[in-house]
Amino acid sequence: MTIQSLPGILRFGSISEPLWIEFDRRIGYHSMDNTHYHRSYEFFYLYSGERKFFIRDSVYPIEAGDLILVNSNDVHRTSELSQPNHERVVLHYDLPFFEGLTQEETELLLAPFSSAHPIIKFNLQERMQLELLFESLLRELSECPPGYQLHIRNMAIELLLFTARHTQKRKALPNIELTPVQRKVTDIIRHINQHFREPLHLGDLSEQFYISKGHLCRVFKEVTGFGFSQYINITRIKEAEHLLRETGLSITEVSERCGFENFSHFGKVFKELSGLSPRAYRKLEQS
To answer: CB under 8 Å to 201, separation ≥6 — which residues?
Structure first.
């Protein structure tokens, strides 16, 4: 089996299940059009083409053969570069997937996701080994022979184990050289991540970072794929979800602690990004 012989789309599971897999062959330019963070651990492999990948507070150009590891709740987004077509396979692992494994085994498999370097570039031999694992998984998903679900789950663990062993052996990567514009945006993102509980206004940040409001909005979108206000809202709602899950604070207190100056605006933004009202979200998480 070759990757070219696969259907253009393959799916396994869903976002609400412990393991969720997507294979896509995308023709033409494509950028994610929605905000993106989730509790699952994301394993993103680019088979062909090239992409721009924003994660945490940095943007990376990625090419065929690159593996991107997205930690739980990391804000991330992909968008196009100069080459339009691409093929990628994405696995999402939620914590229930690891039930039945020991704590030591789970920690080993998840360790690569907490690396300071979310991008792994393999040599040719390593890439061939990894793609053999993917091809075994995708063949089963395409043909669905008896017991294919068991094989897919086993291969999903094999992929994590291969990566965990690789990351233990590899040397620290050199720092990726950022352009002046990327450095400026990275500084602004880090400021937002540290001060999202405080008022954050476009005019204030444009003065603080010596950049016009219009230029700040434009380059922020170009580098991250997110609008300036959109990114602030995502950062605040991520924290609100955490407080609703882990504390007994009232919803009004959660809104205030996350930097929202208007309670009704908090409720509107929360539902827009989470799909539920704050009250319904807390009830669901506590059930």
So the answer is: none
pLDDT digits (tens, 9 = 90+) for 31-67: 554 557 888 999 999 998 888 888 888 888 888 899 9
- pTM for the structure as a whole: 0.76
Structural domain count, the chain: 2
* 58 in any annotated domain: yes
| 147 and 214 together in one domain | no
pLDDT over 70 percentage in the chain:
92
User: How would residue 188 be classed by pLDDT, with cut points 50, 70 and 90?
Assistant: very high
Residue with tokens 């680019």: 46
Give the helix ranges, DSSP H, for 62-176: 103-110, 124-143, 148-169
Query: Residue 106's CB: how many other CB atoms inside 10 A?
Result: 16
Distance of CA 101 to the CA centre of its chain: 24
Angle at 223 (CA atoms; ends 219, 229), nearest 5 degrees? 65
Computed on alpha carbons and rounded to an integer, the radius of gyration of the chain in Å comes to 20
